[in-house]
Design a protein that fits this description.
- This protein is of the alpha/beta class.
- Helices cover 35% and strands 26% of the residues.
- The strands form two sheets. The protein has a six-stranded mixed beta sheet with strand order 6-7-8-3-9-10, with helices on both faces. A four-stranded antiparallel beta sheet has the order 2-1-4-5, covered by helices on one side.
- Residues 6-231 form the ABC transporter domain.
- This is ABC transporter ATP-binding protein.
- Keywords: ATP-binding, Nucleotide-binding, Transport.
Length: 231
């Protein structure tokens, strides 16, 4: 098997000091390979959100190592971690986080502008990404003109347009009804099956987690179970 895409080694995260100190993570070991579709689950306070913040380079461990493509993220500066996020990580959020008065295409082009990409290439990549999520004909509609499900599709396309190594999806169906939730999850599953996109999903819903091929469950700052992992 190839080297892991993501690896946590004995990761601990502490907040506060003295008697007020809280252990959010208590020595977590986790390995994720390219092309996996992993659901991270657990009740509030279990450590899953802290783990995802570390994986997304939004937080750093108190102890232990986070390796991304073999690089120890803990040795990187804040600017280097920001560059890692920009070039290698994609994010999909519960709240869509789109510019409402901006067209779908322009929402997708924004992260490419930050990368210094030329206008022609930005437009081409954004059009391809919209087509991948079934919205090729909606590129010139503003986000405000789209349904919730369509907005989340645009958000997924925005995560894909930079061709990241992994997409982190944080409760991506939290603002959608049941039918649209399953439509979005079917799309993510197809992107994983057909294009091999690595997806790490945070959810508290069993039926949503079932779309992933692997379920990692947190409890009390530790991994309680890990089912469906590659041998």
């Amino acid at each position: 098997m190839s080297s892991p895409l993501i690896e946590l080694r004995g990761v601990t995260k502490l907040y506060g000091e003295g008697e007020a100190m809280v252990s959010a993570l208590a020595g977590v070991d986790l390995t994720i390979h390219a092309h996996e579709f992993v659901a991270v689950m657990g009740p509030s306070g279990s450590g899953k959100s802290t783990a995802m913040n570390i994986l997304g380079c939004l937080d750093t461990p108190t102890a232990g190592q986070y390796l991304f493509q073999g690089t120890d993220v803990g040795t990187l500066s804040r600017d280097e971690r920001a560059m890692l996020r920009r070039y290698h990580l994609g994010f999909v959020f519960q709240g869509f986080n789109l510019l409402k008065r901006t067209t779908a295409i322009e929402n997708l082009e924004l992260p490419l502008i930050y990368r210094g990409m030329g206008r022609k290439e930005r437009h081409k990549r954004s059009s391809v990404a919209l087509a991948q999520v079934g919205l090729a004909e909606r590129g010139h509609h503003t986000a405000a003109q789209l349904s919730g499900g369509q907005q989340q599709r645009v958000a997924i396309a925005r995560a894909l347009v930079s061709e990241p190594a992994v997409v982190f999806a944080d409760e991506p169906t939290g603002n959608l009804d049941t039918a649209m939730s399953h439509e979005i999850m079917s799309l993510l599953r197809r992107l994983n099956d057909d294009r091999g996109i690595t997806i790490v999903l945070v959810t508290h819903e069993e039926d949503i987690a079932a779309y992933a091929k692997r379920q990692v469950r947190f409890r009390d700052g530790r991994i309680h179970s890990d089912t469906g992992a590659a041998a």
